Amino acid sequence: YDDRDGYIWMDGKLVEWRGANVHILTHALHYASAVFEGERCYNGKIFKSTEHSERLRTSGELLDMPLPYSVEEINAAKEAVLKANNLTDAYVRAIAWRGAGEDMGVASKRNPIRLAVACWSWGNYYGDAKMKGAKLDIAKWKRPSPETIPHAAKAAGLYMICTMSKHAAEAKGCSDAMMFDYRGYVAEATGANIFFVKDGEVHTPIPDAILNGITRQTVIGMLRDMQIKVHERRIEASELEGFEQCFLTGTAAEVTPVGQIGDYNFEVGDLTKRISTEYEKLVRA
Ligand code: PMP
């Protein structure tokens, strides 16, 4: 991804894609002081742009690194980078981090907090899983307790176990992994939230150890508007066997049906197909 034409917005300026570099003593590289967002632009409009900018700022506050940019400035940076790259349908990645500077240790208050925004064309995250249903592995890593990490932050440090889980899943021919949380309840996939369907009703974990995805919140609202009951609750491992359908939600994943988790199989059913279609309509509306 580093060797291509285009522009990246960095600290208020558009820079050449290939020159968008940081110093090796960047604090974030050593101590994971970075927060980010993944967004999608459809037909020239970023879906929930302000909500993503607000979450980026909240993530920064949770990591004791308040961003020196307002929501309006972050929104404008995203618009500028899309325009510079001539993209109307794209994935947008904003990232804020502690840079290099006076300090080179765990404490880093004197180092600048920086912001960059990149964008690129990115198709379906799970390939042809949209039709057949994605195959998920069960991750050996557990989502940590809120007393261990600020789980509501979309922070780089939380993705170490996600990368390891996804690598293990891909080695087994799966497209992703489902993670349990530290208590053993169903949590989420490595970059998407999870939903189950049984008897026409929907069940999804309480976001108390997972990221409360913007797509998750959107889909819950859509389901309730369709008069479909949504239960946000703790889901035990033993319940997986009894669910009929399963789907993932996320900016990159959109609404992706799941066909298999470990040894459990799910049908790509009508409710899943309906919500996937309705979501596609909504983001382009
Ligand atoms: N959980 C994790 C771990 C994620 O990385 C993502 C993607 N940001 C999500 C859930 C879904 O969040 P959103 O709908 O806001 O993209």
Structure description:
The chain has 285 residues and is an alpha+beta fold. The chain folds into two domains: 7-120, Aminotransferase class 4, branched-chain amino acid transferase, N-terminal domain (D-amino Acid Aminotransferase, Chain A, domain 1, 2-Layer Sandwich), CATH 3.30.470.10; 129-284, Alpha-Beta Barrel (D-amino Acid Aminotransferase, Chain A, domain 2), CATH 3.20.10. It has seven helices and 15 strands. The chain has helices at residues 27-31, 49-62, 71-84, 129-132, 160-171, 214-225, 270-284; strands at residues 7-10, 13-16, 34-42, 45-46, 90-98, 113-120, 134-138, 176-180, 186-189, 193-198, 201-205, 230-233, 245-250, 254-261, 264-265. Strands 7, 8, 9, 10, 11, 12, 13, 14 and 15 form a nine-stranded mixed sheet that branches. The protein has a six-stranded antiparallel sheet with strand order 2-1-6-5-3-4. A hairpin with a 3-residue loop joins strand 13 (245-250) and strand 14. Helix 2 crosses helix 3 (71-84). The chain is globular. The mean pLDDT is 97. The structure holds 4'-deoxy-4'-aminopyridoxal-5'-phosphate. Residues 38, 154, 188, 191-193, 211, 213-216, 249-251 line the site of 4'-deoxy-4'-aminopyridoxal-5'-phosphate.
Write the layout of secondary structure elements.
Blueprint: E1 7-10, E2 13-16, H1 27-31, E3 34-42, E4 45-46, H2 49-62, H3 71-84, E5 90-98, E6 113-120, H4 129-132, E7 134-138, H5 160-171, E8 176-180, E9 186-189, E10 193-198, E11 201-205, H6 214-225, E12 230-233, E13 245-250, E14 254-261, E15 264-265, H7 270-284
Parallel strand pairs: 7-8, 7-14, 11-12
Antiparallel strand pairs: 1-2, 1-6, 3-4, 3-5, 5-6, 8-9, 10-11, 10-13, 13-14, 14-15
The chain binds 4'-deoxy-4'-aminopyridoxal-5'-phosphate.
Keywords: Amino-acid biosynthesis, Aminotransferase, Branched-chain amino acid biosynthesis, Pyridoxal phosphate, Transferase
EC number: 2.6.1.42
Catalytic activity: L-isoleucine + 2-oxoglutarate = (S)-3-methyl-2-oxopentanoate + L-glutamate; L-leucine + 2-oxoglutarate = 4-methyl-2-oxopentanoate + L-glutamate; L-valine + 2-oxoglutarate = 3-methyl-2-oxobutanoate + L-glutamate
